[in-house]
């Protein structure tokens, strides 16, 4: 939630082919890209921005083996210790018959765990609100937000972005984190004076 | 123009017409923002009426007991379980399209996956009704859950296929729902950001979970989709496998068959694709989505239908052969007398099944028919009828004559409340589907955009020109020069 208000120079691109070299140049020049908002997953953009690979799938694996262990320990305890049922004299520890449920629980734990982790990492939930730099970022614009420090000359950054092919450039003071709110109301977490930059 | 990705020019475009990213958004989201057509209202209220009749049928069944249905001494699983298996099967195509085709990198899935996944979820919801209400004393349904309880420490039987079903269906429903909704988030955000009215801003704002389209979020989203697809793929195969275990692990002649798991899975995909065709052809017409659900999409699905239909055909014939080859008199009687013998009470249903599932899909070897919309629609209905009869044949022809001829039942035909329950699930399914089509983007907007520049018609046309120029240049400079 934290973050405070920061100042951003925002550049909008209408073609990912223009966006890629722009991202490269912005980074080469030494400006700090806060984020790029795109209407669809642009492959390779995360590498171009220098983001590290996500470990979400590793988390998924851990959830999966948790599911496997839960199923196996529970079923074996129930059917061999807690209430052993004699079914036609067959062994109490009937591993082959437990495979279906073990498999289902593995999948269930992995899927539910991963989706929750995904929502947690990306701060996604009903009634969560974030600053949107441009409403068309979910439609057809690729929106790059460059974070400014008090030393940044925003005029220069704006000119730079225009040069790089941005169709629309502006300066915004925005909250960086999320807050509880509704999209039909104007709501802010911080007052205008509490600037973080 | 972007040259980041390349697709062969021989392939048909997946998106027709001159589209830009914004145009894609407009085309798919506009129906949500407009008042629904009269056709929508008529369809919706018919579905609600069916649903209400279903609710009344279930009310009768709960109040007066299973006797409201015409099940009898030997046929304990009549229409009810037939419908259960049929609905579960239909659900399978959605997961196949969204998960297996994602892993196989089939670009055409983007046009149909959203609606097919929705179909999966609603179909599984309908399927779940049947075993639950079939319990009779439905207030005891919680007994299927393994929880530390007050019935002595008596647990459910983890070795029973019926319990495996509980786990399989509930997991399948949960995972499908998560997969579907996580895919919907970015598109709901698109609707939210276009919203003009306050109510729409509020509702889609809540539904979109505050999605921004950040690159890091997309990266995680991609990873999530891929892993969920990887999980759903064995899951979907396991679900119908386990449903088939309900039959295959029993000792009833006609059910006790090792071929059931692959046979059921192929049949499920077969019937599911038929249902996807039925729904897509209507959606495409009503929302004029001809540019996104192209003839190419329909043809691709028809190819899956002819493939899975042939697998099902081979399974039927193998099953019949093994029944004879196995030399078990009871098994062979079930097949030769109860099914194949057209003069037996249910012989007609076996041959109807054979015709609808094995013979009729073979016409899709002809390209002309694969690409004919009216014919495809007709065939999709035929296949669905055939697949319903497959389950009917398996259940009824195996049970109406048991080992004791004195209890061989009289002709089983369903009661009005049995039919009403089935119609009620149609009501449930279509009510949900109409609401989905009205309030959610029926095509994955973000996914269409991500394949637009490689497979969009206008982009492909540009690529063809570039390629032609290149090859001409090569010819002039290299080939002619060499001479």
- Rg of Cα set of chain A: 25 Å
> What fraction, in percent, of the residue positions of chain A are helical?
40-55%
The helix/strand series of chain A, from N terminus to C terminus, equals EHEHHHEEHEE
Number of structurally distinct domains of chain B: 1
Shape of chain A: elongated
State which percent range the strand residues of chain A make up: 15-25%
CATH architecture of the largest domain in chain A: 2-Layer Sandwich
Number of extended strands of chain A? 6
Report the portion of residues of chain B in β strands.
under 5%
CATH class of the largest domain in chain A: Alpha Beta
Pick out the low-confidence regions of chain B. Answer: none
Query: Largest inter-chain interface?
Result: A-B, 71 and 74 residues
CATH architecture designation of chain B:
Up-down Bundle
Number of helices of chain B: 16
3D architecture notes:
The complex is a heterodimer of chains A (197) and B (483). Chain A is an alpha+beta fold. Chain A has helices spanning 16-29, 45-48, 56-82, 95-121, 154-163, and strands at residues 5-13, 32-37, 128-130, 142-148, 168-175, 178-180. Chain B contains 16 helices and no strands. Chain B has helices at 21-33, 38-64, 79-103, 109-134, 161-194, 198-207, 215-248, 260-286, 295-325, 329-340, 347-359, 367-370, 373-399, 416-439, 445-455, 457-482. Chain B is globular, with a radius of gyration of 25 Å. The two termini of chain B are 36 Å apart. At the A-B interface, α1, β2, α3, α4 and β3 of A face α1, α5, α6, α7 and α15 of B.
Features:
heterodimer; A: alpha+beta; Alpha-Beta Plaits; 18% strand; elongated; B: 483 residues; mainly alpha; Formate dehydrogenase/DMSO reductase fold; globular
Summarize the structure.
The complex is a heterodimer of chains A (197) and B (483). With 197 residues, chain A is α+β, with helices and mostly antiparallel strands. Chain A contains five helices and six strands; from the N terminus they run E-H-E-H-H-H-E-E-H-E-E.
